[in-house]
Amino acid sequence: MIFSKNLINWYSNNKRNLPWRTTTNPYYIWLSEIILQQTQVKQGLPYYESFIANYPTVFDLANANENDVLKLWQGLGYYSRARNLHASAKYVATDLNGVFPNTYKDLLRLKGVGDYTASAIASICFNENTAVVDGNVYRVLSRYFGIDTPINSTKGQKEFKALAQELIDKKEPAAFNQAIMEFGAVQCRPKNPQCNICPFKDSCIAFNKNRINQLPVKIKNSKAKKRFFNFLVFVSEDGRTVIEKRKDKGIWQNLYQFPLIETTDEAKTKYIKERINSLELLKDETFELWLYNKDTIVHKLSHQHLHTRFWIVQTKTLALKGISLGEIKNFPVPILIGNFIESFNFE
User: Fold this and answer.
1) Angle at the Cα of 105 from the Cα atoms of 93 and 28, rounded to 5 degrees
2) Structural domains in the chain plus CATH codes
3) What is the pLDDT of residues 259-269, one digit of tens each?
4) How far apart are CA 233 and CA 239, in angstroms?
5) What is the Cα 314 distance to its own chain's centre?
6) Which positions of the chain have pLDDT values less than 70?
7) Which residues are registered as beta bridge partners of 260?
8) Helix, strand or coil for residue 241?
9) How does DSSP assign 43-111, residue by residue?
10) What is the model's pTM?
11) Distance between CA atoms of 48 and 200, rounded to whole angstroms?
12) Which of 33, 47, 84, 328 to pair with 78, CA 20 to 30 A apart?
């Protein structure tokens, strides 16, 4: 098909020089694809390089401590990716003797691997004719073909997958998949696409009908839920503080945080004092309480906005052993707490 050939030709002349494009090693390709989910290349590249340096083989990653994996992932968000990455590495290393599945169907058995990632690995590493569909692909296809079907609907997902599968170059599936993703990332961008120098502008429906900014269509999500977090940062005279590991399932599962009081609205100092007095961290020890950030920090996640305050609790001793202030940076924490730790300058 002319579209596919022209796209691959564009890619050969315009692709960025990225480390995972110099290999077909499934471990490296898998690692890059997991990191780049929900993440731009410029942000993900240093993480990819760090993981390769620290865990050069799937056995190294499988044998790593989960805390170390989460710490290396810190700042990328969507931490379930890191937990799934670690679990899948153990599965490949132990159950498959370090040999990655080599088909789309078998790759789907890896935890955290869905249609897109399985298609990418299968085509790039094993030359399987299975098309990738990610945000970049949705954008390119919806604009070029003028498709109004919402990309986040079941119908849209099926329609775009079928179209991509129809377009894929059967002789060069790896080149086609990488080309269409790259084209969406650097040419057919979400904002300010380079339409005037686009090789497809004469046949692009969105360009010729002035609908670039209208496509792709996406169903709007419901309004994000507001939550109010109050983190208690204990600082004792003997240089200790308290952190705890989140056990509940969720975005921050197995990460560490300061003791948390969640409220239904912005809490008053009096209420926080009353709650602290009920905790076993201090027992009957007196303390001083002050609010570190007078302006509430709003941490925006996909379906919720966390209105966050950090309360400094100064006391002589802690009822619990806690950790030394110097150890705090060794623990994997959400970026929200990591930013606070950097600004508070624990010593």
Assistant:
1) 45
2) 2-214 (1.10.340.30), 225-344 (3.90.79.10)
3) 999 999 999 99
4) 12
5) 35
6) 1, 346-347
7) 231
8) strand
9) HHHHHHHHHHHH--SHHHHHTS-HHHHHHHHTTS--THHHHHHHHHHHHHHHTSTTPPP-SHHHHTTST
10) 0.85
11) 32
12) 328
pLDDT of residue 276: 87
pLDDT tens across 95-135, in order? Answer: 999 999 999 999 999 999 999 999 999 999 999 999 999 99
Q: What is the rounded distance in angstroms from the CA atom of residue 14 to the CA atom of residue 37?
A: 22
Residue bearing tokens 């005279």: 237
Query: What pLDDT, on the 0 to 100 scale, is given for residue 291?
Result: 92
Respond yes or no: is residue 182 known to be catalytic.
Answer: no
Q: Is the distance from CB of 182 to CB of 151 less than 8 angstroms?
A: no
For residue 229, how many other CB atoms are within 10 A of its CB?
21
| Coil/strand/helix, residue 341 | helix
Residues 6 or more apart whose Cβ sits within 8 Å of residue 92: 58, 62, 98, 99, 100, 110
Burial of 228 by CB count in 10 Å (0-12 exposed, 13-18 middle, 19+ buried)? Answer: middle
Map tokens 């670690």 to a residue. 86
Q: What integer pLDDT is reported at residue 346 of this predicted model? A: 67
The token duo for 103 is 């088909």
CA atoms within 13 A on the CB side of 285: 21
Strand-strand pairing, 323-324 and 297-300: unpaired
User: Which residues on neighbouring strands pair with residue 300, listed in sequence order?
Assistant: 305
Tokens 């309360």, located at residue = 311
pLDDT value for 320 = 72
Other C-beta atoms closer than 10 Å to the C-beta of 94 total: 11
Residue at 291: amino acid letter: L
Residue 233 pairs with which residues in a beta bridge?
312
**Beta-carbon count within 10 A of 166 CB:** 10
Burial class (CB in 10 A: 0-12, 13-18, 19+), 251: middle
Closest CA to 289 of 309, 307, 308, 306: 309
| pLDDT score recorded for residue 200 | 95
Which pLDDT score is estimated for 347? 61
* CB-CB contact of 236 with 252 (8 Å): no
234 in Cβ contact with 281 (< 8 Å): yes
- Is there a contact between 191 and 273 (Cβ–Cβ < 8 Å)? no
